[in-house]
Amino acid sequence: MSALFGKLKGEGLSARIMRSSLLTVGGFGFSQVIRLASNLILTRLLFPEAFGLMALVMVFLMGLGQFSDVGVTPAILQSKRGDDRDFLNTAWTIQVIRGFGLWLVACAAAFPMAWIYDEPQLTQLLPVAALTLLIAGFKPTRMDTANRHLLLGRVTVIDMGVQLIGVVVAVILAWLTGSVWALVISGVIGGIAEVLINGAFLPGERNRFRWEKPAAQELINFGKWVFLATIAGFLFSQADKILIGKYLSLDTFGVYNIGFFLAAFPMLLGGMVTRKILIPIYRETPPSESPQNFAKLRKMRFAVTAMLMLMVAVFASLGVWLVGLMYDPRYALAGPVVVLLACAQMPMLIVMTYDQAALAAGDSKRFFVLAAVRAALMIGCLLAGLEMSGLLGAIIGQGAAFTLAYPVVVWLARRMGAWDPLHDVVFAAFGLCLAAGALWLNWEAIGALAGAVL
Fold first, then answer.
1. The whole model's pTM is what?
2. Nearest residue to 260 via CA among 373, 354, 337
3. Among 404, 395, 392, 363, CA closest to 279
4. 205 CB neighbour count, 10 Å cutoff
5. How many angstroms separate the CA atoms of 242 and 378, rounded?
6. In 3-state terms, what secondary structure has residue 219?
7. Are 448 and 339 in contact (CB under 8 A)?
8. How many Cα neighbours within 13 Å face the side chain of 430?
9. How far apart are CA 116 and CA 444, in angstroms?
10. 3-state class of 363 per DSSP?
């Protein structure tokens, strides 16, 4: 035990990886407990349609954010100038300008969105909710600097505090109003708190407006492919919300989102770990440089994937029971949704540790190619599933899209020297066994879902 604590206290790469991993997982666990508690409370204070409305708002805002992402954070993480003052201030200036632009676009798009989805409330909800994008433009680059050097202790504590503020505000407003506005306003207040608290408590100089031409050129050259990749990434990750929200009723969409909320825990954790930790690791220990680097990454990859697969197995096996325990009967169909989504996500979890290798090497173009193929497959498989079997087909379509993208993941991973076929074979077999067991345990509930939505 003392040896473990000794390793954690060191300043080497391994010690920083271990500390950052523990902090990321711990912070994620805290975040999900708070999200779950607030979700349980809010589902009793609000109505299913409110969650459907908010899901539409969030899909639009995420789309705006990702359709305009110029890769400021990954650029800071991988650039040789990632600690340079002028580079950081130029990146921050770009970020602020982008935030103002996004808010104006959201205001202009509110009426068309309300018309497309036949939801008049969106004309008021979208401009207010989009203030979070404007506010986010002022986040200090000190957050990225801490991430770059795997020094995440204070950042994790601040994230916890900010989330608590947002949840408390949401619950109080929901209790007072019983309206979807509770979710919108709490998001804006949480965004303000994040900027102010990070600015006050993270070490480093304050950002100032600056435009250094070489820094701007580097950011733009790196960011043009990240920009395209994030557009594709948005379509890949949010296609289910966009298409299910259009094809199916708002209350069914709300039930789907409750199921997604539970089933997505492992995917969200995996995404957080890869974004925050893997770019610095790949940058400092490229797997193509030596067998020793590859071996270190293999150990890390096996540990991360095993943890994620065990987590998703819990939700796949116990999804129906968990929904029945935590939610009232209006959300009963969310149980089999949890089971099916958890099984569908297993192919994605197996390859999640490969994605960031290209960004760490500065190859944002190949990262875009992978994102574009995934987006095209996801949209095609979702549309086919919805046309053939409604909600059930849409969930199966997601699993098919994750699986069909595997050859392109291998292409990218091999280019970076990161592909590990032993890892993939072991966890593919493990995942098939887990999925078969979960489907067998919950077959009756899955049949009920099929009968209700077909």
1. 0.66
2. 337
3. 363
4. 11
5. 12
6. helix
7. no
8. 20
9. 36
10. coil
Residue 314 and residue 425: Cα distance in Å, rounded? 21
Query: Could you give the angle at the alpha carbon of 347 between the alpha carbons of 277 and 301, nearest 5°?
Result: 35
Distance CA 43, CA 419 (A): 43
**CA neighbor of 72 nearest in space, from 365, 409, 284, 364:** 364
Cα separation, 77 vs 87, in Å, equals: 12
Instruction: Tell me how far apart the alpha carbons of residues 131 and 194 are, in angstroms, rounded to a whole number.
Output: 13
State the Cα–Cα distance between residues 323 and 154, nearest whole angstrom: 34
- E strands present in 272-326: none
Token pair in block for residue 222: 């790196």
* Residue-range domain boundaries for the chain: 248-454
> pLDDT, tens digit, for every residue of 243-291?
887 777 777 777 888 888 888 888 877 777 776 666 667 767 777 778 8
Runs of H (alpha helix) within 332-363? 334-351, 356-360
pLDDT single digits (tens) 157-184: 888 888 888 888 888 888 888 788 888 8
- What DSSP character marks residue 207? P
Place of tokens 């912070």: 27
Residue among 440, 454, 350 nearest 394 (CA): 454
Maximum Cα–Cα distance across the chain: 62
pLDDT tens digits, one per residue of 15-52: 555 666 666 666 667 777 777 787 778 877 777 677 77
Pseudo-torsion of CA 26, 30, 31, 32, nearest 10°? 100
Taking the C-alpha atoms of residue 126 and residue 57, their distance in angstroms, rounded to an integer, is 6
